[in-house]
Design brief:
The complex is a heterodimer of chains A (193) and B (79). With 193 residues, chain A is mostly helical. In chain A, 64% of the residues lie in helices and 0% in strands. In chain A, helix 2 packs antiparallel against helix 3 and helix 6 crosses helix 8. Chain B has 79 residues and is mainly alpha-helical. Chain B has one domain. Chain B is elongated, with a radius of gyration of 22 Å. The chains are: A mainly alpha (193), B mainly alpha (79). Chains A and B meet through helix 2, helix 3, helix 5, helix 6 and helix 8 of A and helix 1, helix 3, helix 4 and helix 5 of B.
């Protein structure tokens, strides 16, 4: 059986039963989307590396502790852990101004994006940097939906659940996000294929 | 099927959020609705720019996670 034919659920079950290689397969399969999302949330590659590690260590502890609910899809579950890790980090370092959503609940979309300019240390091309800057310039609500849909690959239903809004609201925010990004890309005369 | 195809449906289609029957209906609509087709193409272009932004974690981070898992295998196995 090819790796792509094995579901996340099957890999998780095999890992819990002692097959270490299955964890590596899961990480290999999803590391880009999870890391990119974390990186855009915290806007710092080094912090993102730390949170990525801490997130998976929490994943391991939860799986081995038998606390994982099988009805949870793997990536949304990992992203929820990553969000909490990011919030904890900003709380500890007092780098957050407000972490409150519309309904008063914590959501990582309210994380203050720090202005520390470490871009030069980040290995990204100029185009990537520009698009990244544009994403960070989006209103928080739009940015959150965009990151979760585009990079974390969550469905609009899953995004609606996480951010405590209706699917239509999540979809509306995504539409605005893409429209605004496109406008900014054209204004900045960045390359569009 | 009775699905009103709007830009929102096209967005769901672009991101693979539609059922097979919705997908089919949207594809049919895109063939004949030039305004929606234009919206689809513009959003696809934008999405492709966003796709370029994906980055990977350092290999060291992945190794730290795998080493943690291997080193805690025995102690956690008895849960």
């Amino acid at each position: 059986m090819k790796l792509t034919q094995i579901s996340d659920k099957e890999l998780l079950q095999a890992y819990v039963h002692g097959n270490e290689a299955c964890l590596e397969m899961l990480i290999k399969r999803h590391k880009r989307k999870i890391f990119t999302s974390i990186n855009l949330i915290v806007n710092d590659t080094y912090i993102a590396e730390d949170i990525f590690q801490e997130t998976f260590i929490k994943v391991i502890q939860t799986l081995r502790g038998g606390k994982y609910k099988e009805e949870d899809k793997f990536v949304p579950w990992v992203m929820r852990i990553a969000r909490n890790m990011a919030i904890d980090y900003f709380r500890k370092t007092k780098r957050v101004v407000m972490i409150t959503g519309e309904d008063g609940e914590d959501i990582f979309s309210k994380l203050e994006i720090c202005d520390t300019n470490r871009e030069e240390q980040i290995i990204l091309g100029q185009m990537q940097k520009s698009v990244r800057t544009l994403i960070l310039a989006l209103p928080e609500e739009q940015r959150t939906v965009l990151i979760l849909r585009q990079y974390a690959d969550l469905s609009f239903k899953e995004i609606a659940d996480i951010t405590h809004v209706s699917i239509n609201t999540a979809l509306g925010r995504m539409r605005y996000a893409l429209n605004n990004l496109r406008k900014m890309i054209l204004e900045k005369e960045l390359h569009l294929q | 099927m009775n699905l009103t195809i709007t830009e929102t449906e096209v967005l769901r289609y672009i991101y693979g959020d539609c059922t097979p029957s919705e997908t089919q209906a949207i594809r049919e609509e895109l063939k004949k609705n030039l305004a929606l087709r234009s919206y689809h193409d513009r959003m696809m272009e934008t999405k492709m720019e966003l796709d370029k932004l994906e980055v990977e974690p350092n290999e060291t981070s992945v190794n730290i996670i795998l080493e943690y898992s291997a080193s805690h295998h025995d102690s956690l196995e008895h849960h």
